[in-house]
Automatic annotation (TrEMBL), chain A:
Keyword line: ATP-binding, Cell membrane, Membrane, Nucleotide-binding, Repeat, Sugar transport, Translocase, Transport
Membrane topology according to the record: Peripheral membrane protein
Gene Ontology molecular-function annotations: ATP binding; ATP hydrolysis activity
Entry-linked InterPro entries: AAA+_ATPase, ABC_carbohydrate_import_ATPase, ABC_transporter-like_ATP-bd, ABC_transporter-like_CS, P-loop_NTPase
SMART domains to which the protein is assigned, alphabetical: AAA (SM00382)
Lineage: Bacteria, Pseudomonadati, Pseudomonadota, Alphaproteobacteria, Rhodobacterales
Main subcellular location: membrane
ABC transporter domain location: 7-242, 259-503
Compartments, as annotated in UniProt: Cell membrane
Originating species: Paracoccus siganidrum
SUPFAM superfamilies in alphabetical order: P-loop containing nucleoside triphosphate hydrolases
Name this polypeptide is given: ABC transporter ATP-binding protein
UniProtKB/TrEMBL annotation, chain B:
Signal peptide as annotated in the record: none
InterPro entries: ABC_transp_permease (IPR001851)
Protein name: ABC transporter permease
Organism field: Paracoccus siganidrum
Pfam family, one: BPD_transp_2
Keyword terms, alphabetized: Cell membrane, Membrane, Transmembrane, Transmembrane helix
Record keyword RNA-binding present: no
UniProt membrane topology term: Multi-pass membrane protein
GO MF: transmembrane transporter activity
Entries under PANTHER family matching the protein: ABC TRANSPORTER PERMEASE PROTEIN (PTHR43370:SF2), SUGAR ABC TRANSPORTER INTEGRAL MEMBRANE PROTEIN-RELATED (PTHR43370)
Cell location: Cell membrane
GO cellular component: plasma membrane
Regions crossing the membrane: 37-60, 67-88, 94-113, 150-167, 197-219, 231-261, 273-293
Amino acid sequence: MSERPFLRMDNIHKSFGEIIVSAGVTLEVEEGEIHSLLGENGAGKSVLMSILCGILSPNSGQIIYKGRPLNIGSPREAIRHRIGMVHQHFMLVPNLTVAENYVLGQGSPLRLIHDMEKVHARIRELSDRYGLGVRPDAVIEDLSVGEQQRVEILKVLYHGTDLLILDEPTAVLTPQETDRLLDLMRGLVKDGKTVIFISHKLDEVMRVSDRISVMRDCRVVHTTRVADTDPRELARLMVGRDVLMELPRAPADPGDVVLSVEGLSCRNDLGLPALRDIGLQVRRGEIVGVAGVSGNGQTELALAIAGLLPIDSGRLALNGRDITGLSPAEINARAFAHIPEDRHKMGILMPLSLAENAILERYDQPPFAARGMLQRRRIAAHTRDLIARFRIKTPDEEERIANLSGGNQQKLVVARELARDPDFILVSQLTRGIDIGAIEFILQEMLKQRDAGRAILLISTELEELFAICDRILVMFHGQILGEVPADRSRLEEVGLLMAGQKAGHVAQEA
Amino acid sequence: MLDILTLGFLATLLGAAWRLATPLIFASIGEVISERAGVLNIGLEGTMLMGAFCGFAASFATGSIPLGLAAGIAAGMAFGLIFAFFTITVKANQIVVGAAINLLGLGLTAFLFRTYYVSTGRGVDIARPVRIPWLSDLPFFGEALFRQNLIVYSTVLVTVLAVILLYRSSFGLTLRAVGDHPKAVDVAGRSVAAYRYGAVLIGTGLAGLGGAFLTLGHSNQFVEGITSGRGFIALAVVVFARWSPVGAFFVSLLFGLFYALQLQLQAQPMLNIPYQAFQALPYLMTIVALIVVGGKSAAPRKLGTPYDER
Amino acid sequence: MTMTQIERDGRGAAAVPILRLVGRAVARAAVAVALPAAAVAIALACGAVLLALNGFDGADVVNVMILGVFQDFRSVTEILLKAVPLILIGAGLCVAFRCNMWNIGAEGQLYAGAVSATLIGISFEGLSPWLYVPAVLVAGALGGAIWGGIAGFLKVRFQASEIVTTIMLNYIALIGTSWLVTGPMRDARAAYPQSARLFREAWVPDLIAGTRLHIGILVAVALALVLYVFLYRSSAGYAVRVVGINPHAARYAGMNAGRNMMAAMCISGGMAGLAGAFEVAGVTHRLYQNISPGYGFEGIAVALLAGNNPLGAILSGGLFAVLRSGSELMQITSQVPQVLVSIIQGIVILSVVAFAAIRIWPRRRS
Amino acid sequence: MESRVFRRAVLMGGMAGVLAGLLPAGKAWAEDLKMGLLVPGSVSEEGWNRIGYNALKGVQEQLGATISYVELQQNPASFEKAFYDYASQGYQVILGHGFEFQDAALSVAEDYPETWFLISSSDIHEGRVIGLHTDTSQPFYLMGVIAAKMGKKAGLVGGMEIPPIQQAFEGFKNGVRSVDPDFPISEAYIGNFTDTTAAKEAALSMIAQGADFVLPNASGATVGGYQGIAESGADVRTFSIFSDFTPVAPDNILGLYVADYAQGVVEVVRGIRDGAPPEANVVFGLKDEKVMQFTFREDGPVAVPDAIKAEVAEVAAQIAAGNIQTHSN
């Protein structure tokens, strides 16, 4: 660490209500380096950078930039100090042209825009210099995602920047585009700029960084030069937990195939290929894990199986019967349960009571409905039963679910899905954002389900969770299943490497 | 035979259409600006009424038309400020607040008019037609089209200014961005709320002007409910015009034309089309336009959505 | 019964276990009534200030507008008569708003219902009232449901904003009615533009002889209850609410969002259409071009004040009927312009909105 | 049309009713005369509704009656209630100012046989429901005669197609045809009574198509019509109807037709009070000079030639004598 760092963020705290998103982060960046921020989703990387850019105000902490304290909490201050950020969700106005986006917010509001030709010329010049191929008069909404990203990067360069922050820039890029981006970053550093590169992809980070800071649980847990580390260490730092949970469990006794997926391919909501020729099977009495760095197709896999995302090709079967192309309602009716990735987006209805949330998919089926009417006594009894069995902390079943903690909300989702007596349970990010006690409880419940003969597919970015309950683990990378590893903690590094897209010699090859 | 095929008829029709379109042009261009910033103001009707009443009252008191127009604009903006406070600062539902604004506009203008002006029975002077050299001397069209008052002519100016504001100024660029991607504006260091306040105030100011035209540029008196639904038609104009000020100008003219045509065709004894058919046409056409152009495709992406900084 | 439950119930009326649910319902109702009541109080206060500033007696707002209308029995029946369309429309709009469908078109739907009811009511002489009255009412409800359903269809099929289409459909319905009563449906013997009189067998029977109050008030209250039960006790209503709260969750749960949106528009339209049928078959017995003085728009405020709860719409519909009658009374006794009621309604809406914001703000600020 | 839509859209204070519970109704008042008025629109507008209000004021001033009025915004559902309210509060005379109140009055009269119901512009006579008809077609007939003698083409701008307006226009047309059966007349309705802008444009479009004698008759919106006439130059002629619109169109107005309806109503009510109620429906016409005043302007820049004035006077006398039928029944 140098005596006078280029940038020092000191003990930054930030919380939204009771949710802590930055727990005393300290980060130092030196001039002229590519500094990677590595960490899982929710580790606090984007929040930290938003604070640096003035979009979010921290509760406490200070930032020293170029030797002087930075007046934080104002985007214009950051712009003035030539700090530029390329956001994960592009800050480009879709109905404006590239050049218009660049002059947005520049100068006096009362200024007339008459010198657009000059702007165009400068954009072309910069675009040529870095080989970005950006056309200044193109309208954003007509551009592909990769093109939009180049527009975003050039926007920051256009405004003049000494410190460039790239937030998950490769998440939406093809491998070829990623290569070009990494080359560009090196070129920028050569021009004397400093780059902060946010990613959770080990391979990219190893390829391009000078130094790496690993974030976990809203803190920087380690900073190292790239030469002093290796992907295994980084993987461990990223996913590592202080407490390794050892849940007692019997060896699996897999039975018939319940879910079978063959040749599944589909696109994400941006129209980009998300899944490529996925094949997998889940048998009665086993838990199959799907590991992978987020953004490698796990979300789409879950949605496609649940019938919530149209598929391009492939076949899905449940209990030997074809379910390809069926509606979510039809799939739900085939002993299929789904614990969704984002409970706020899909799993629960915040303004409603626990009881009303407990019947989400079965609102029109007996015993909860009879002759079209909700059977309130039965629903209440059922919900009380779930509350008791899952030890959900709530005054009663009439409480609004919004008033519960995240862990208790998730318990209700799990309880609801398990109560449907499914043959197959699709689980995404089972323990995201909930406390340790609830995690352990939920994991144990999943094991009980396995032992009761159910087939479970657990998609997770939490390796610890996967190792704790899975029988075997599939690793996804770039929309494909790269390999399968037995769920044995000694194989953790192997999984880490697969997550980074590296195949080791002794890993069983799969399509 | 039918008088309607003559050039003179056409010229008169266009002249009438322009006058009938004038309040619509002001209000709809104002609403274009407001909606481009993502704020849907269905309270235009009440706002126009305020403009009509306050314009009348100010002119009544001072005898000055310019002061009356200024008062109309100011009254519109005052209502705009209420609307903006509730929708932008309090982040309340824009439809609900707009409905309340309509009630307030109608109630207040009628209440005050009855309390203070009913028994006066006196009108105000209205803006006189102004001849434009050369144009007004054109045969047929000069006589009918270019013998309007300055307020009517100023619709062209307002349209041009709106185009410059929206498409040629830094303010307009940011304003359009606010309706489409407010976060990008926030990140660029500009206040989304300030721009939305600005857009709403411009929009309601123009609506106030549109209302004031009715009492200061066309009739010389305030009548309860004088706007007669024009605030709602302006909303339709905006959709039909696909959120473009130039489009709003011409769609308003088109709607004005329907109205003028309806009045003129009734006066043709040999034509027997129910005049209601023409009255319903603008509304039907707006629905068809929505189907053809698609509801969402042209609308600002964040129309009607309060901006949450998080 | 845990301690927490009992503590919570202490806020309600009863802590006795068996009355637990009742107690909570009372507590919730108290909260649900307190805020709208405060909003109305603020609005009346503003009205009083406005009156005082303009040389009237501010106290009239309470003495005349609220208390004055309860002076005799007939006045009360007239308030109830006014409440019929307001309750019907308000309760129906609760369903649409719960489904996040901004139906501004109840006025047009009322007209569509009035026209349909009239068509049936002037066409079949000699039918038994037991058959005829229901037929007329059903026709009205169907007419309104179709008119609302058009906007629903345009939304689901073309993503056309229901806010714009319902406003447009209002005008089309009003203009269409005007054409019908001055044209094809005009009563040739009458000079005033109006349809023929509905056959007597089609008239909605009076509830109390000697007054104009017809059984529509019972139907309105009953239907508000039915819609409450539909929304909160039936599985179909549950789906409507889920679609309104979170369409993603609705899809996840296997619900068809479009179908539910259509249902919500048809129900709210049907209620407005029924209100139109009651006006024609219960009050005027003819179709006029001014059959509604704005009930469809007032219904929006009724639903809003009711917190989008059909049960609440019974109360808020009644309250708005009182305000309407009261403002008429004020014109007679104090020469206060009747439009005062519009001002008060506008302020009621803004106050409700502001209260909702105050409840959310502390959370947002923390 | 927009006007009605508008009113519904934002004005919810359309319907009215009299809840006279607060009015003093004790025995001491039982002998006093109380009169109520129902008007279909706002008395704040110059025109029809104001005429009804003035009649009520006249009864108050000349007969010392207690008066009350209520505006009903053309909403038929509220008519019966308003009659009931007045009748039940012991009002002896209720004036429904407009033909549209007739049905409601008949229905309420069944329950209140002692109450007098006066209905403006109606020909009814059933028990104590009595039509008071100001036969507007008579002065309009005279205007038609003048138009046909002085002009080339006539234009009529109406509010809504309702009987008082239609009948007046019919009188005008009959008057025109008595002079020249082929004289061109155009006629248009703006569809409401509030849109002054539409009334003005309708007048302007008629003038553009050659009309040189234009009459607006659209209640509150009437003034818009006179403005259109005034802006079109002194070649266009008109008459001021119901109120004095001379300040609006000083160069165009040939004369005034002013109905002192109040005087007529006062006489009828006086008869009722004194035990001499009308025995049939009442029609006010040119014969009732106190009620119907038809005058030519002497001071204006435009004037009717004396020859025509004399002819008009002759026709007026014939009408007053009942020799000329100005409208069909």
